[in-house]
Amino acid sequence: MKKFLPLLLPALCALWVVSAWRSPSDKPGTIPANAFGRLPVIANGRVQPLDSLARNSLLQIREKQTASTGTSEGAARTLTASEWLLELFFQQDKADTRPVFRILHTEVKGLLGLPLDPDPAKGMDGKHFSWNNLAPKLPDLMQEARRAQAVKSELHTPYDRALLQLWNGVTLYRRLEAAAQPRDTDDWERELREFTAAVPAGRAAAKAQQEGKTLDPKETAALESLIHTLQHASDMQTLTPPLLVPPITPGLGPEGWQRTDESLFQVAKGEPVPSALRAYAAMGTAYRAGNGAAFSAAVETYRQELGPNLHKVLKKCASEQLFSNLEPFYKATVLYVLIGLCVMIFTLAPARFAGLRETAHRLTLVTLLLHTAGLIFRMVLEGRPPVTNLYSSAVFIGWGACGLGLLLERFWKNGIGLLASSSAGFLTLIIAHNLAQSGDTMEMMRAVLDTNFWLATHVVIVTLGYSATFVAGLLAVLYVVLGFFTSTLTKESAQSLSKMVYGIVCFAALFSFIGTVLGGIWADQSWGRFWGWDAKENGALMIVLWNAIFLHARWGGIARERGLMALALGGNIITAWSWFGVNMLGIGLHSYGFMSAAFSWLMLFVATQLILMALALIPIRLWRSRLA
Amino acid sequence: MNARLWKFLTSLKVTVVLLLLSTLLVFLGTLAQVNEGLWEAQERWFKSYFVFRHAGDAWWVPPVFPGGYTLGFSLLFNLIAAHIHRFQWSSKKVGIHLTHAGIVLLLVGQLATDMLSRESFVSFEEGQTRDYSEAHRTVELVVLGEPQNGRERVVAFSEAAVARKQALVAPDFPFEMRVTEWGENGEVHSHATLLEIGTQMQTAIATMKSKYGTAEALPGEAERAKENGARSAIWAEALKAVGEKDPDIVAAAKRVAADPAREGVLRKELQTRFSTQMLEAFGMRQPTMEKMQAAKYLGSQLAEDKFIPLDKLPAAAAQGAGQRMLLVPKPPAHGMDDRNFPYAKIEILEKGKSLGIWMLSPWIVPQEIQAGGQTFRIALRSERYGQPFSLTLLKTTHEVYPGTQIPKNFQSHILLENKEKGEKREVDISMNNPLRYGGLTFYQHQMGRTEISGGKGNSQLQVVRNPSWITPYLGCAIVSLGMVWQFLYHLVGFVTKPRPAKAKAPLQA
Question: Tens digit of pLDDT for each residue in A378-412?
């Protein structure tokens, strides 16, 4: 077993990853939710599969990528995002019973008259509520939300924030509901058919009426049918649902897409009926009848019709669904934990568990490959360099740190590099996971940032600088924790750690300087000043200065081994500040908005680093490891 | 110089201390931006020799701290002196020398940029032509004479000259000017607007107050307020102030109305709260910027129960537009988005005889004066920088991503005309694609659509003149070269060096 483990475990993990690399399929005979999820839509300014729209919407409403049926029809069952969206599109009365609104704040619950505690009799868990639970008190919610919206975001109380988050969710829910068909219609397919048939006669009747002629009953009926559906369309219009109807004319890009309501108005003007309208109406009928075969046929016909013009769009949507299903970064997180465990057991008794270092080393290679594949997949989907927003910066910092750790391991072969890889990878992916809670992570770039050249150079290089500074800091954490709390830090390993930190800081100084400077050049090219003392620029400058302090202190013999470790720990604080803290200031051209929840985490992190810095500097006789 | 002192000044210890102070300065200067705004914080922390604590600063502002210039010059001195002191020529040191030479260039370049660069903007509508750009923050006093020989006569006095209250004399003009008053920031409101809006506001408030004039009216008013969420919320708060926490506001109102000790307090509370709400709403409802400003000013006065004699408003000046204007001096504005609107009162003297006093402000269009049988126009306007070429805004493009408000592209299509050089061509300026011409760079800044002028697009370009723009590029190239050299030099040495077996020992050898 000991002999095979270094081969077996990495191979099993690789198999686990590769086996998930396929598009999700549907069971024959059932409603094909996955095929539905692959259909294209424009939301958040970009073409995406309905599956992504459903997942990102659920993240915002329920803080999860899945929904639950609730206990109204027996035992609760999990609904995939696409299944939930199907119901919301086509069978709203049922969707309205699903407990998808996550509400934790007691005052918000109070406002809406919801129970504070779980109430098994009513099938309520006290955290998740359905549309029907909220509906009676919606006017109150709206009034309170309006009030909170008028308050500056820095002055929002936790109640205001919870309130606005819920309001945001409620708006989103209603927008999705209005995407495919109006809410109060019995048989949308029939209504649409009658509407399209009535258009020529209805238009003529409307014209005749304007000219002051009296209408006969047939004309009146045609006009009424037209008005009835257009009334529905204008109800949908006020909610601005996502753009579900692709352009009929070939060669039109994203700007040619329409919402269902817009499309209905076009049809009323005598334009041809887009296939999307008929297809979604047919899907609705099949869905409500539980007819899987008819649903599949409707989806297939629709895809055939889109095929010639939108071949690329369909392919992109299928790839994005595959990517969401593969969850490369989630799997990588799990593997980083496994690597960490292997290395920790190895360090406890290196002689006994020598094979575990090899296992961990190979596992790290597998994981880095997976991490890289995920990054590249995202880049291809977006058509962008790896870092475009805070979420992707976290993923990329983890990737860079993992690579650096592996590089260290090549030279020292003592497990320290692997420990750095796994902990950096794990922590950054957890941060990324939390950042993804706000919804779509592949959002479009605002005009100022819309330049692949600078995103590929400045952003990538400066982010690698962040990675390196964090790796140096992480090694310093290891040094202090092992040295102060345990007796396992020997003189030799302390020296090798110190050399590693020095090498990494050199790398960090180089990358953060070049990255910062490239940012200055971008600014000079874009708005005419090389340096503007903007918060994010200052953050990057502080990292450069701090790395310079470390190097000069070492060259001048001003700080010794432990002093340098304290400086490297300080680098953690400065990098965290530059990465997150400046966004919390809510100022400057680079700000991503006020992130209050992250603020307490940042403070906690800073506190731990300060404590470690203090421990690094206390007299050596108080350390458990004998380094003197 | 004393050898020990020289040694100390060139030491790495001083370098490290200076770098530490610099890091701290950058951090504090960033924090300061929250309260002081980007521009103000930059001037105070980075473009200064010392930062002194003011009254009203946040708790973390130290009593005194070295500013950006002090630290920059000290680092420069320390760096150059250290190189003079310990200069050695060897391949090992080439990288270090290059890096430091580049840093010297960067520091000097930033200083040069601070002193030599100038930012201004061009703001125009589709179809308009501009052959000048305007300053962000400074104004000038201009006198425009009647055209002579087909050329308009313009004399401009700088803001500094006006602020110093110098006598302003233009050789060609038959009069001179004396500045009697100068203010850094002030609003002007036309008497007519104040009268119109003020009357509406006072009537509305009086009607509202009369509703709560008697205790008997209270239950009925509470009954009416019940249907309206915002009104019932105000009632609930007012009731809380007299100790009623009952969610049923009608019942509570009845109780208070019957209690002579409390009913007066409740009526006062209701009147104050509803008038605050009404005053806010009034400002929002106004159709034009001018009326909004007037409503805001009146609101702030009425909220403090200040009496404004609307029919007897004081005139800002005895002559010109100032006769029908109210001047409200304000403290100088801070922050990025706020700007100052200075004002000046000017006495015009024709051959030593006073023609009266005029008030000037960027809010007021040029005013006519008669002197020596000619008509002149005087105004206070944003300082202008002329260009030997003109730009005409032909078309603006403002694209968003479909179904969202996220901007995708701002683009100004412009006709560039330089008569001297016989140049006439069309160019596009968009985000990340500036126009560089005649020593100036034009960047796309803001874009909008004017509703008033028939939906014409307007565009604002940022204009930068920076003769030292090349220094950071050069400096960065040199530093990068030096750092890469140094890094590779060590890396090659490290990788090719034979590793002792001991280093392979695991953590716990």
Answer: 999 988 888 888 899 999 999 999 999 999 998 88
ipTM of the modeled complex: 0.83
Q: Are residues B194 and B181 in the same domain?
A: no
B431 with A529: Cβ contact below 8 A? no
**DSSP code per residue over A451-497:** -HHHIIIIIHHHHHHHHHHHHHHHHHHHHHIIIII-S---HHHHHHH
The confidence score (pLDDT) of residue A592 equals: 39
d(CA A454, CA A590): 14
Domain of B171, in residue numbers: 138-188+319-384
Q: Is B31 close to A525, i.e. CB distance below 8 A?
A: no
- Does residue B436 form part of some domain? yes
Any A CB within 8 A of B501 CB: no
Q: Does B116 reach chain A within 8 Å, measured CB to CB?
A: no
Last-in-domain residue among B384, B399, B418: B384
Tell me the two tokens of residue B494.
């490290």
Q: What value does the mean pLDDT take over residues A525-532?
A: 81
Residue A581 is given by DSSP the state I
Instruction: Select from B403, B410, B472 the Cβ nearest to the Cβ of A242.
Output: B403
E strands, B126-175, in order:
129-148, 151-158, 167-169
Percent of chain B with pLDDT over 90: 24
Taking an 8 Å cut-off on Cβ atoms, the answer to whether A444 and B408 are in contact is yes
Q: Is residue B411 part of a domain?
A: yes
Alpha-carbon distances of A272 from A222, A249, A292, A618, rounded to whole Å: 18, 11, 29, 80
Is a pLDDT exceeding 90 seen at residue B22?
yes
Question: Would you call A347 and B508 a contact, using CB atoms and an 8 Å cutoff?
Answer: yes
Average pLDDT, integer, range A424-451? 83
The count of structural domains within chain B is 4
B434 in the same domain as B364: no
> B residues 232-261 near A, CB within 8 Å?
none
Buried b (16+ CB within 10 A) or exposed e, B31-62: bbbeebbbbbbbebbbbbeebeeeeeeeeebe
Tell me if B27 and A577 make a contact (CB, 8 A cut-off): yes
B209, B299: one domain: yes
pLDDT-derived band at B505 (thresholds 50, 70, 90) equals very low
Residue A613 has a pLDDT of: 95
Domain-wise residue ranges, chain A: 50-177, 188-310, 327-444, 451-628
Same domain, B194 and B284: yes
Yes or no, beta carbons of A492 and B505 under 8 Å apart = yes
On the question of pLDDT at B5 being above 60, the answer is: yes
Shortest Cα–Cα distance, A422 to chain B (Å): 17
The pTM (predicted TM-score) of the whole model is 0.81
Closest residue in chain B to residue A419, using alpha carbons only? B507
